[in-house]
Amino acid sequence: MAFPTVNEQMDLLKRGVERIIPEEELILKLEQSRQSKCPLKVKLGCDPSRPDLHLGHAVVLRKLRHFQDLGHEAILVVGDFTAMIGDPSGRNKTRPPLTLEETRKNGQSYYEQATLVLREDRLRIIYNSEWLGQLDFADLIRLTSHITVARMLERDDFTNRFQAGTPISLHELLYPVAQAYDSVALEADVELGGTDQTFNLLVARDFQREYEQTPQVVIITPLIEGTDGKEKMSKSLDNYIALTDPPDQMYGKTMSIPDTLIVPYFEYCTDITTGDLESLRSGLDGAKANPRDAKRRLAREIVALYHNDDVACEAEQAFDRLFIQKELPEEMPEYQMKSNEVFLVQVLKDAGLVATNGEGRRLISQGAVRLDDEVINDPNFAVRKGTTGTVKVGKRRFLKIT
Fold first, then answer.
1. With CB atoms 3.0 to 4.6 Å apart as the test, which of 80, 117, 184, 219 could cross-link to 103 if both were Cys?
2. Could you tell me if 304 and 346 lie in one domain?
3. Is residue 197 part of a domain?
4. How confident is the model at residue 330 (pLDDT cuts 50, 70, 90)?
5. Are 171 and 85 in contact (CB under 8 A)?
6. Is residue 156 part of a domain?
7. Among residues 324, 355, 376, which one ends one of the domains?
8. Which CATH number does the domain housing residue 34 bear?
């Protein structure tokens, strides 16, 4: 196929990345690919222990989509075998390993959500158990001979745990080895990953040299902050925007981000042109643009990406009715009283507005729960039979009690 010019490809591929290691090798690979009319093999490893994807995951997925749009081959490597090891990835303790069955199930969920971003017609999905599961103990010894303990301790989380006297299990040291061998098995030209995966991706370059392959180029994407503007986007911190969120929630969560995240979200989470991005940046910096208007455009752009333009407009109208005109949503879940008295915490959990009773008690104590616009701050508040009304949790969760 005919590829765009190398300069055109680099303009797209350099956008929204932290580092390209090394950039000159990527240029060379693109030139060779264009001359031979052979697409590059671009690899992204996915962790099936966390199958629920959000905009933070989409940053690297979108970079893989850019390669697809340029005509290259995208390879999604589901780490079903490596997930059984348990990669710490910046944590200070081992992540619990999963069974092969669990990783396969989660891997399928990951794929279904990832294809909200990626093109299925230019995507190859593969499980690394296909080659790692075939290695015997002699193969493992040969693999580990290609890396030293000193090199392994260059990984920040291993260094910190070693210095703090926190145990490091031997099998954890095998994770970067196994992930590096993925690149050898696939003869990858490029590998993508977040900043927390930099060490692992660079080790793969070393392994490819040992196997007399041309080392892959490593492209590092940033880890974006969540809607709180403080911590990395994470479901456990409840500061995430899920790829599968309903349009109204996706729009509302985007509108809740601090102004400091408007430009980064436009850059990493939308298809806005470079020219528009710079115009928006200068407008906000010079106080010529209204942050609220920019945020509304951002919310529309994000909803349209994962749904469509019409749905994005409907989500904006619903937001305006709810937060500007102060109307209740037209549709909301209902909870029917079946006993004489039920703790409000239990109502919230049974209706799915909170995941646990502990989360419900915390929100009530923080004054984030209202019953017919009256703040309820007693965690032991009970709803009695015959009560009707609307429960509001935070800004976007509603429940009708009947």
1. 80
2. no
3. yes
4. low
5. yes
6. yes
7. 324
8. 3.40.50.620
Put residue 389 in one of left, alpha, beta given phi > 0 → left and psi -120 to 50 → alpha.
left
Count Cα atoms within 13 angstroms, Cβ side, for 198: 17
Tokens 């180029």 belong to residue? 217
Question: How many structural domains is the chain composed of?
Answer: 3
The domain of 297 spans 247-324
* Count of alpha carbons within 13 angstroms of residue 307, beta-carbon side: 22
Residue 141 shares a structural domain with residue 267: no
- Torsion over CA: 285, 290, 291, 295 (sign): negative
| AA letter at 152 | M
> Considering only 65-69, 86-90, 116-120, 226-230, which range has the smallest mean pLDDT?
86-90
Look at residue 267 and tell me if it is in a domain.
yes
| Contacting residues for 108 by C-beta, under 8 A, at least 6 apart | none
Same domain? 153 vs 273: no
Percent share of the chain, pLDDT over 90:
54
Q: Report the alpha-carbon distance of residue 363 to residue 350 in Å, rounded.
A: 15
